[in-house]
Design brief:
The chain has 4 helices and 7 strands. The protein has helices spanning about 30-45, 55-65, 115-130, 145-155, and strands at about 25, 75-80, 80-90, 100-105, 135-140, 155-170, 170-180. The relative contact order is 0.16.
Amino acid sequence: MLTGSRRLRKPLGADFEPETALPIRLASAEDGPALAAIYGSIVRDTAISFETTAPTPAEMAGRVERLLATHPWLVWEESGEVGAFAYASPHRERAAYRWSADVSVYVAERFRRRGRARALYMRLFEILAAQNFTGAFAGIALPNAASVSFHESMGFRPVGVYRGVGYKAGAWRDVGWWARDLAPRSNPPVEPVPFALLDL
């Protein structure tokens, strides 16, 4: 059974320097308050998230529990404090999309620009590839030059823009989509392994 105290056995890639090879573990329901604190300010104060009401700690805990059956949810924690998280979710519900995953990463303001997001994403991509996912997709509410630059530095390429797709904070918002390959696409493809069954 997955628990929040479970550390991932495989270390981060060798391309990370020791100071950025941060402690990463699986999220758990107990992380609900910390996740809500990080994400809540983004919902309330920005147009980055298209949610309009910040989820409660209990709601965040429920999201973690539901998602971990199929997709990874990771947190960065040091000295008992969760400062960032990243997760994957289904790209779409219909069956032919099942090799694709949406990905997101959020970092508490005081921990930004220290390599947390990059470290979390790299570990997330390794896990998704091990699950036989072939593509990661990121939707970015525009304008957001920092997120666009970060995702492109992580190997994402732009694939298109939904114009005026959402309304938040007094304006209609565009959402750009970026894609990153995770593994070669075989024909026929190998079925994705549910995260709960993956031996990490």
